[in-house]
Amino acid sequence: MMNTKRIWIALVMLLVSPLLLAAESDPDELIKKTANEVLTIIKQDKEIQAGNKKKIKEVIEVKVLPHFDFTRMTRLAVGRFWKQATPAQQQSLVSEFKTLLVRTYSTSLISYKDQKIDYKPLKLMPADTDVVVKTLILQPGGQAIPLDYSMVKTPTGWKAYDISVDGVSLVVNYRSSFAQEIQQGGMDQLIKTLQAKNNGLIPDTKKN
Fold first, then answer.
1. Is 207 a domain residue?
2. From edge to edge, which strands make up the β-sheet containing 157-165?
3. Structural domain contains residue 205
4. Is 76 among the domain residues?
5. Structural domain that includes position 179
6. Is 207 in a helix, a strand, or coil?
7. How many distinct structural domains can be found in the chain?
8. Among the listed residues 142, 143, 138, the one whose alpha carbon sits nearest the alpha carbon of residue 116
9. What would the pLDDT profile of 158-167 be if each residue is shown by its tens digit?
10. pLDDT tens digits, residue range 53-86?
């Protein structure tokens, strides 16, 4: 289980490293070349630093969401139950899970301090379509945290579909609770629970 500090630091680095460059760029370069740009935005934007939730959400929606495969991410989090869901349920699950991640981690942007990113070399073969980009988060006065991005090559470029913090996958971290909800009340129960979390009616325990 990821602890709170490591989740927040990891998600900060996830958000400050969106995949914004051209589709033909290698996945590690997509992360590396854009990190400085977004870190500059965070450092210079007083509204973000002051905790403006609307501004933070805008940054996430514009800079991050278009470059993640949320369908793949949700399918992995739901696991073996995914095929049991109807197309409408699958669409609702993707939408609610995406909203949950944005809502849960939007404040990660303002928690950025002076962490640095050490990018590990990636041996990318021409035929590769699914790779892991390995990085190391260096904290001033703290222990370095391994942070890996699972990425898939799509017709519109490389997209991230999972991150692993110190060896623990984000989607796997949700899988057990999702399975429990489905086993207790079916797919609709999971959708209702995600909607309740997104409406602030119940907390997202995965933040802890």
1. no
2. 116-119, 130-138, 145-154, 157-165, 168-169
3. no
4. yes
5. 4-199
6. helix
7. 1
8. 138
9. 888 998 888 8
10. 788 788 777 777 777 899 999 999 999 999 999 9
Distance between CA 77 and CA 90 in Å, rounded? 12
As given in the structure block, the two tokens for residue 37 are: 């740009």
User: Is residue 206 situated within a structural domain?
Assistant: no
The residues near 18 (Cβ < 8 Å, ≥ 6 apart) are: 34, 38, 63, 64, 67
Which CATH number belongs to the domain containing residue 84 in this structure? 3.10.450.710
C-alpha distances (whole Å) from 107 to each of 7, 8, 9, 166 are 12, 9, 11, 21
User: Taking the model in full, what pTM does it have?
Assistant: 0.78
- Return the pLDDT at 179: 96
Please state the rounded mean pLDDT for residues 193-199.
92
Token reading at 4: 């709170």
Question: How is residue 142 written in tokens?
Answer: 């703290």
Long-range contacts of 19-22 (CB under 8 A, 24+ apart): 19/67, 19/151, 19/157, 19/158, 19/159, 19/160, 20/63, 20/67, 22/157
